[in-house]
Write a structure and sequence with these properties.
Blueprint: H1 2-12, H2 14-21, H3 24-47
Helix pairs in contact: 2-3
């Protein structure tokens, strides 16, 4: 699935983001929010 590949790419690139934020948990929450908003937007577009 596309979502699984997105998650894997985000978690593999998370180490680079950890250097910026310094908090793996915060990084996971931020990436989760970004994925959630993208899915919601795509769902709304497909309903039209």
């Amino acid at each position: 699935m596309i979502v699984v590949k997105l998650l894997q790419s985000i978690f593999s690139g998370g180490s680079a983001m950890n250097g910026i934020f310094g908090l793996p948990a915060l990084n996971g929450i931020l990436s989760g929010l970004i994925i959630y908003t993208l899915i919601v937007k795509l769902a709304k577009r497909s309903r039209k």
